[in-house]
Amino acid sequence: MPLVVDQSPSAATGIRLSAVEKWYGSAQQPVHALSATDLDIAAGELVVLLGPSGCGKTTLLRMLGGLIRPTHGDIAIGSRTLWSADQRDGTSMAELGLVFQEPNLFPWLTVAQNIALPLELRGVPAAERIRRAAELAALVGIQGFEQRWPRELSGGMRQRAAIARSLAHDPRILLMDEPFGALDAMTRDAMNLELQRIWMATGKTIVLVTHSITEAVFLADRIVLLSPRPGRIDWICPVEFARPRAIELQSEGAFQALASALRKRLQAMA
Ligand SMILES: Nc1ncnc2c1ncn2[C@@H]1O[C@H](COP(=O)(O)OP(=O)(O)O)[C@@H](O)[C@H]1O
Ligand SMILES: [Mg+2]
Fold first, then answer.
1. What are phi and psi of 110, to 5 degrees?
2. In sequence order, what are the residues at sequence separation of 6 or more whose Cβ sits closer than 8 angstroms to the Cβ of residue 248?
3. Does the residue 240 lie in any domain?
4. Per-residue pLDDT averaged across 47-63, rounded?
5. What is the Å distance from ligand 1's center to 50 Cα?
6. Ligand 1 atom with the shortest distance to the CA of 56
7. What is the C-alpha separation between 202 and 9, in angstroms, rounded?
8. 187-231 confidence digits (pLDDT tens)
9. Integer-rounded Cα radius of gyration of the chain
10. Residue 4 has what DSSP assignment?
């Protein structure tokens, strides 16, 4: 059954994985990173991939991003095929924005130039790039810092700039690999709130990888819990707390009960 996708430019887009499997290594020393995985992600959904270190989360996200080739299986971005029988159709990659654990800003470019880089690569004129960089800086909460150098920003602000850059070409889907893993706990809470706000403001589809149970329960519409290597989907857990969610939710009984159920499930798999 094809995904039903609204083709209007501002619409979000869903993702479908069919029997996606990944092996690394050589024939002599194969590494089975991900077992055959089926998953449907709805347009506008915020899905969190949660699992222990080495279970294949980054592998899965990079296949979704078109960066690495599945060994078997198909991936569709909306109505377009991204991977089919290890052939890539790169046209759907324009729908994707990527955020990694390290912000990877270019130190010789200002914050605004970093944010607008994807637009420069697409030939967008300077005046429009400046306007868009200012708009995105405001969206992620770093307005006023556009002319600074990355080294003048805190870790949290650099990651905000990286999120702004990932949104510059207005992708329908954001893929985020442990984007707040390098931040201290308080900054991480603040960034979780900010990401929720950005997601609610933009309606993007988001797939976020984390190994933090708290982050997963706080952010997700659905948590996809992966088993240790070779990763496979162990549990898909809907998270139904009303939005916007406040940090105080984390100390409520229902939140802690869900976090504790996930922790037990993770421990049982270890
Ligand atoms: N390029 C590679 N070659 C061989 N093995 C790899 C490669 N990349 C990842 N792996 C292995 O695949 C498994 C999954 O890795 P990864 O997707 O990075 O896990 P996670 O992000 O969940 O920590 C790990 O056991 C890792 O060592
Ligand atoms: Mg990883």
1. -70, 170
2. none
3. yes
4. 96
5. 15
6. 17
7. 12
8. 899 999 999 999 999 999 999 999 999 999 999 999 999 999 999
9. 19
10. P
Q: How far is the CA of 52 from the centre of ligand 1 (A)?
A: 12
Report yes or no on 239 lying in a domain. Answer: yes
Residue 98 lies in a domain: yes
Residues having C-beta closer than 5 Å to ion ligand 2: 58
Whether residue 99 contacts residue 207, with contact meaning beta carbons closer than 8 Å, is answered with: no
Kindly identify the ligand whose nearest atom is closest to the C-alpha of 181: 2
Q: What is the CATH number of the domain that holds 249?
A: 3.40.50.300
Six-digit token string for 168: 């510059």
User: Which residue's CA is the closest to the ligand 1 atom numbered 12?
Assistant: 33
pLDDT tens digits, 106-149: 999 999 999 999 999 999 999 999 999 999 999 999 999 999 99
- Whether 147 maps to a domain, the answer reads no
Average pLDDT over the chain reads 93
- At 149-179, the pLDDT tens digits run 999 999 999 999 999 999 999 999 999 999 9
Residue 177 tokens, joined: 């690999």
Mutate to test the pocket of ligand 1, among 23, 59, 69 (most ligand atoms within 8 A of CB): 59
Residue 43 structural domain: 15-104+171-269
Domains contained in the chain, number: 1
170, amino acid identity: D
Ligand nearest to the CA of 51: 1
Which ligand ends up closest to the CA of 177? 2
Against a cut of 0.85, is the pTM above it? yes
